[in-house]
From TrEMBL:
It holds the Pfam family BcrAD_BadFG. This is ATPase BadF/BadG/BcrA/BcrD type domain-containing protein. Signal peptide: none annotated. Residues 13-289 form the ATPase BadF/BadG/BcrA/BcrD type domain. InterPro entries: ATPase_BadF (IPR002731), ATPase_NBD (IPR043129), Euk-type_GlcNAc_Kinase (IPR052519). Gene3D superfamilies: 3.30.420.40. It comes from the Bacteria. PANTHER family: N-ACETYL-D-GLUCOSAMINE KINASE.
């Protein structure tokens, strides 16, 4: 029995950490055995109480102790001092030797989960948005991805913000917001009066609260709400522009789109393919890909 335990394949942890949440996957022998979502974690949260809370919650929520970890974390680059600091924090909270943990940017993780070097342009729309290309030699060309305070047009935060603008425009005109968009947003915010909206938007720092409204926009559009449908069309145009900016620099490579924003409605996916004929929308679990990459840390052990 003891010999069987020793020969059992290693348990590997993959992380896809961002501003809306941290997706994790545990894999053994190439198969995912458990997965989940815990608190948001980004490079900006390192050495903050929120960051410590997120890592503690991650460790406490895992149903097993991993033997190696690979993580894609928003806001950093592989090999940077920040990446090394995040790797040390992960190793400490999970009780692992530092050499069993590796960290790269979430975009680098996403790119190689979908494309090989130089194969195409990755258009990622989650909480934020970015178009990303990695050449066969590793050179990065990107457009967007500057965060919600500067850009992120077409992503989840942008969709939520646009919905709030539509509804607060109603309030400015003295009109009670109505229709499917108002109803779906109200379910998430708890109300559509300004006091309630203000608490929802500004009561929690960062982009996560507003990004939570993106699925409401999708549901309303699916129900035939004209204003919600227009917001999805606008978002598709903004995302297409990002991809085209990268194509203008690297050549007319094919576009692969992915990310949580494309899950809010099939109408967004359809609008994108109208804006970018030939583009494909492809969903893969990046945390599961990261778990497979963690196997590299077991060689020779």
């Amino acid at each position: 029995m003891y010999g069987e335990a020793l020969s059992r394949p290693a348990l590997l942890l993959g992380l896809d950490a961002g501003g809306s949440g941290t997706k994790w996957a545990l894999a053994r022998d190439g198969q995912t055995v458990a997965s989940g979502v815990t608190l948001p974690f980004t490079a900006a949260l390192l050495d903050t109480p929120a960051g410590a809370q997120a890592l503690t919650a991650l460790a406490a929520g895992l149903p097993g102790r991993p033997e190696a970890v690979h993580a894609g974390v928003a806001g950093l680059s592989a090999g940077s001092p920040r990446a090394a600091a995040v790797a040390r924090e992960l190793a400490g909270v999970l009780g692992l030797e530092p050499e069993r943990v590796s960290v790269e940017g979430d975009l680098d993780l996403a790119y190689r989960a979908h494309l090989g070097g130089g194969e195409g342009v990755l258009l990622y729309a989650g909480t934020g948005s970015v178009a990303y290309h990695v050449s066969a030699g590793g050179a990065v060309t990107r457009a967007g991805g500057y965060g919600y305070r500067i850009g992120d047009d077409g992503g989840g935060f942008s969709l939520g913000r646009a919905a709030l603008r539509v509804l607060t425009d109603d309030l400015d005109r003295g009109v009670v917001p109505s229709g499917a968009l108002a109803a779906e947003v109200g379910v998430v915010t708890g109300g559509l009066d300004w006091d309630t909206l203000r608490t929802f938007v500004y009561g929690t720092p960062g982009a996560a609260s507003v990004a939570r409204l993106a699925p409401a926009v999708g549901k309303a559009a699916d129900a035939g709400d004209v204003r919600a449908g227009a917001l999805l069309t606008e978002a598709a145009g903004q995302l297409a522009t990002l991809a085209q900016r990268v194509q203008a620099r690297v050549g007319p490579l094919p576009v692969t789109a992915t990310g949580g924003a494309f899950r809010v409605s099939p109408l967004l996916r359809a609008a994108l393919t109208r804006e970018l004929p030939g583009a494909t929308v492809q969903q893969r679990e990046h945390a599961e890909a990261a778990a497979r990459y963690a196997a590299a840390h077991l060689s020779g052990s």
